[in-house]
Amino acid sequence: MTTEPRTRSTTGAWREGDPEGERQFTTVGAVDLERGGWLPQVTVAYETWGTLNAARDNAVLVEHALTGDSHVTGPAGPGHPTPGWWDGLIGPGCPLDSDHLFVVASNVLGGCQGTTGPSSTAPDGRPWGSRFPFVTIRDQVRVEALLAQALGVERWRAVLGGSMGGMRALEWAVSHPEKVGTAIVLASTAYATAEQIAWCQPQLLAIRSDPGFLGGDYYDRGSGPEAGLGIARRIAHVTYRSELELHDRFGRAPQGVEDPLGGGGRYAVESYLDHHAGKLAGRFDANSYLVLTEAMSSHDVGRGRGGVESALAATPSRIVAVAVDSDRLYPPRLSEEIVSAAPRSELHTVSSPHGHDGFLIETQQVGRVIRDALGPTPRADAIR
């Protein structure tokens, strides 16, 4: 499911009184891409909470993961196919206290919830589809930097995110260190590992092998490669949880009265995967899944910078790396590598039985890390 936006304004300048937690749009102009090619006019969907203060020192950027969007908190509604993916972290008195902070979240370049992506309309009036160019994590951060400029944010007090969002938070600290006070990198890495890339490959093949994919140009057919996208989600979701959680939660139990022993029925864990596959296929564009997955595989803060250690050693930004102890997709050693290379860094560990998804589920532990990392709240005097 995709939404083609109507641009809210041409300047994107944030104004006091703009609706909190409601999707807004701005255009940031043409964007040249790292691997060649360009996009002639990029629209960005974003949401804000709180007020940018007169000193412009209270802005925080929240980065979503692969299938997230700008709707960090709040109920489902128009433009929000699902409730907020990090409820409880933004709002008055929350770790990201909107009484004191100006919190921004945008949908990523290549996404399908308002920001320019494969399902968006190209200059010729047709969806980009297979013509959408290859984008990297660095391209996504470049677009976010243009959004910051449009909003009047000169420097982020903090940039934070988990998984793919953590990749962008770290890239911000390396490529725009003068604009980032603290990067909070949750359940993420400085580079995509061989295993992470390996897990991505069957997901990409599942989508591209679906007869409904049609080379990526399926938008006028009424349906797309939902079966392939569902398989991709099943593969990914197993990596998001821990072996012990799946064992304790499902074991070998059948799904209800279904008989999996030759009776055509499912095990409970299979029904669980089917459920998550169906949810994603109903709200996410398969082409965006491909674009963003390949962007994640491209992630390497050391590319062209003398390697990962050299790139991290050069950033003056403070890095707060947060590992989840049961994460098998982004294991704690990757957070340890970030801290060992970055001069101003610290390591925290979230204890969770849930695996990689612990960064989304363990909101109390994550909230404590965020509060400590942000320190005393700044004044929230509004810009007049």
Can you put this structure into words, describing what you see?
The two termini are 39 Å apart. This protein folds into 2 domains: 24-192 and 303-374, Rossmann fold (3-Layer(aba) Sandwich); 196-293, Rna Polymerase Sigma Factor, Chain: A (Orthogonal Bundle), CATH 1.10.1740.110. α9 (332-341) links the parallel β11 (318-324) and β12. The protein contains 11 helices and 12 strands. It is of the alpha/beta class. It has helices spanning 137-151, 164-175, 194-208, 226-240, 243-250, 268-281, 286-298, 308-313, 332-341, 358-361, 363-374; strands at 24-27, 31-32, 38-39, 43-49, 59-63, 90-91, 96-97, 102-106, 156-162, 180-186, 318-324, 345-350. Mean pLDDT is 93; it is low at 1-16. It has an 8-stranded mixed sheet with strand order 1-4-8-5-9-10-11-12, sandwiched between helices. A two-stranded antiparallel sheet has the order 2-3. A two-stranded parallel ribbon has the order 6-7. It is globular, with a radius of gyration of 20 Å.
